[in-house]
Write a structure and sequence with these properties.
2 copies of one chain form a homodimer.
Chain A: E1 6-7, E2 17-19, H1 52-59, E3 64-66, H2 69-75, E4 83-85, H3 87-93, E5 98-103, H4 114-126, E6 131-136, H5 140-152, E7 155-161, H6 162-167, H7 170-177, E8 181-185, H8 191-199, H9 207-220, E9 224-226, H10 233-239, H11 241-253, E10 259-263, H12 268-282, E11 288-294, H13 299-302, E12 305-309, E13 318-322, H14 345-352, E14 357-361, H15 363-377, H16 383-401, E15 407-412, H17 420-427, H18 438-445, E16 450-451
Parallel strand pairs in A: 5-15, 6-7, 6-9, 7-8, 10-11, 10-15, 11-14
Antiparallel strand pairs in A: 1-4, 2-3, 4-5, 12-13, 12-16
Helix pairs in contact in A: 2-4, 3-15, 4-5, 5-7, 10-12, 11-12, 15-16
């Protein structure tokens, strides 16, 4: 075969340990604050919503954390995920750059999300928890956790952001097929949901609202904990299997990336591909690491680094992070997984320390490259994933203009088979861009926020 | 890791040749008949719809046919597909049988169909064809050919059976994302479509009608040929990569199958998994090979072995096959890929020669096992695939009752992410069974059919 386009690792090459970037960060992480006292939170304060084994992971500074055997067994269903070279996409761009992508769409749920759903279900199970609650944006996380809770015999209720619930009707059935319950958020099942529905009956919802509902449900229900698909340290930790595998595969390909790219909502798939490379960078390697967000929800590029709540109703601890304000309701763009006001504290700190860059792209631009990708590489990308693809394309075109040939690695976070309504809108010419005006962001930020 | 659940082969293990069962069949194949003269058809009579290179494959008796390098390169996008052991499904059934499945759902189109779509697009391309037409039932074939024609720079128009078009609205967008055009069939774009719509405006359509439309379009358009996703000898040939890989993987697993199972519409995924094992059987190996069809379209179990047309409007050659009659319109079950009146002549002959068995299962039974599969194995199966799963489960349960432990291998032909409406109906209790009464079949068969 002419070009080697796919690098597959044997099952025994699945990483046996997660990489914890806290062990290597030049600036130590600021502690989360208690939402009542605004004092640094204690581990036991988190016990109302998380089991202690996950809380320990959240605060751990150990560089390597062993992946439990039952988690390894489930990950092996689709891991190691293949690394591809996008030879035909490169040709279409006319670039000499090599574009590699780590295909996380091969999981049964179709995205990288099971990498953390499975360990979270496992740790809750062994802690004696019977039921989980969670939120989901586009539905990737809700589906992943539905599958994972079914695997470990837990019940699950998913609060799905209303706009995505309406745009992607089959996501609910997918979750039900795996045995979970899914309702649109805001819902009438919680106090916070009812309050918001009363004031804004037509709200598209937001991840912040859905998180509030899921937490309220968890706190007020028996044997129930809450599960989150991004943002937290342990979620980023679980996702590092992506980057650890990619490093082995890039070695086999004989290339080291000049640029590593991931889309950013809460930050989990980005953390997954990027953190092992950030470690390289901290230790002297020269490379660029780029997080990509939508212009409609510019958390990294326009949100300040502050202490803010993770949810709308201020139930969560305050986290040190880039934020557009916890009351921010992003425009109803199709990349529902990127509609989050905040950003993982770990990713936020790396951005502060200039160990990574951030950029924002518009929806229509993303679909343009998403369609080109499907037509050259075969796999149809999720709307979120098209953000990473668009920036890879832009970097490759820039390199072409500069007469350079770079190695670009992107996290292909998930397939778009459940998100085809967005493609239909794009083809019909009805897809629009949303740019967040600076004064709206300023308005959103006037809410009680503590500047770091 | 406790049990080895996944066997992945290296890219260089993709078969380099297709296996042609015609070289080994005890009974030579009867020739197709010309629809006008009813005489054995000549190769050049087929040239109006197929390029000569594919016609040569159709009639070849060579045991091994080399896979062209450009086809190999495209297949390598997802092949070799993984072989899994369904350990958790086994546990749920309480059986000691080992159930292996070949996961063809990992292709970008989500099913086994690209195995033939890619070579068909390639052979048409090198024959100078510019545009293809085709039919599709559930949409798996239409999507696969959309991707393949895009890869080789051909235009494509897909006639999609109306009932599936309505049940699976996102299939059309998927095809468009790959650059193809898709219309519901019967359509007003062809003479045959208009005629049928006039008489039966509410018809759910059938594969037979859609084939008639696609052929009419191909014959009456410039530089256009017709492409078929099943039934023909060369389609079965292309699919044998499935069984050839499975044989290598079963050897690594250290087991030989006692039973090989595939669902059967036109017969292509079944041929793919089964033919290399039929070869073993012809040469003395003891094993059972089972084709599974829906009770609503019982071509193998109730249709006689006759000469019949492949399409409704009698445009195709007459093929020696099991058939319910070319005018047969199957009930609107969700497994749209199994709604075909006929059966691949190669599979029909093997059934005649008792080298395989046939069985029929009802829709509700299939979904029951499909849901159990999703909840134990993670991957959500296509409605077609649930037919193979249901019979694997029934065989495993029977073995348990007999105190036996068998090795069962099934072709997991595709995922069901585009077919979730059927699951929704199942959960709501609204899914019904369709059994084809014998007198209706008799009525359908009174149409002009030539008994072999």
């Amino acid at each position: 075969m002419a070009d080697r386009i796919k690098i597959v690792l044997d099952e025994k090459e699945i990483p046996r340990e997660w990489y914890n970037i806290q062990a290597d960060m030049p600036t130590p992480m600021k502690p989360p604050l208690h939402p009542g006292t605004l004092e640094p939170i204690k581990a036991k304060d988190l016990e109302a919503i998380f089991p202690m084994n996950l809380i320990e992971q959240e605060v751990s500074r150990e560089r390597w954390i062993k992946i439990p055997e039952p988690v390894m067994e489930k990950l092996a269903l689709w891991r190691p995920s293949p690394l591809y070279r996008a030879v035909n996409f490169e040709k279409a761009l006319g670039t000499k750059c090599k574009i590699y992508y780590k295909n996380e769409g091969v999981s049964p749920a179709g995205s990288h999300k099971p990498n953390s759903a499975i360990p979270q279900a496992y740790y809750n199970k062994i802690a004696g928890v019977k039921r989980l609650t969670t939120e989901t944006g586009a539905g990737q996380w809700g589906c992943a956790l539905s599958m994972a809770t079914q695997m470990f015999g837990l019940d699950l209720k998913v609060y799905m952001v209303r706009i995505s619930f309406d745009q992607k009707p089959f996501r609910k059935i997918m979750m039900e097929t795996w045995g979970a319950k899914c309702v649109p958020s805001p819902s009438s099942d919680t106090e916070v949901g009812r309050t918001i529905l009363k004031e804004f009956p037509d709200t598209p919802g937001s991840l912040g609202i859905a998180i509030s509902e899921a937490i309220e449900d968890a706190i007020s229900s028996k044997n129930t904990k809450y599960s989150l698909g991004s943002v937290l340290n342990f979620v980023c930790l679980h996702q590092t299997v992506i980057g650890l595998e990619a490093q082995k595969q890039m070695k086999i390909a004989g290339d080291y990336p000049d640029i590593v790219i991931g889309c950013v909502g809460g930050g989990s798939n980005f953390a997954g591909i990027a953190f092992p490379y950030v470690c390289d960078k901290i230790h002297g390697k020269k490379l660029r690491i780029i997080g990509v967000e939508p212009t409609a929800c510019p958390t990294m590029t326009k949100g300040p680094f502050v202490y803010d709540y993770g949810d709308t109703s201020k139930k969560t601890p305050l986290l040190p992070m880039h934020s557009l304000g916890h009351a921010f309701i992003p425009a109803p763009l199709h990349a529902g997984g990127l509609r989050y006001h905040g950003l993982a504290p770990l990713v936020s700190q790396l951005l502060q320390d200039k160990l990574m860059e951030a950029t924002a792209v518009s929806q229509v631009e993303c679909y343009k490259y998403g369609v080109l990708w499907a037509r050259t590489e075969g796999f149809i990308p999720a709307p979120e994933t098209t953000h990473a693809i668009a920036v890879a394309a832009e970097e490759a075109i820039k390199a072409k203009e500069e007469g350079k040939a770079k190695n670009i690695l992107l996290c292909w976070s998930g397939h778009g088979l459940m998100d085809l309504a967005g493609y239909e809108k794009y083809f019909s010419g009805k897809l629009t861009n949303y740019h967040m005006p600076d004064d709206e962001i300023k308005k959103s930020l006037t809410n009680r926020l503590i500047i770091v």
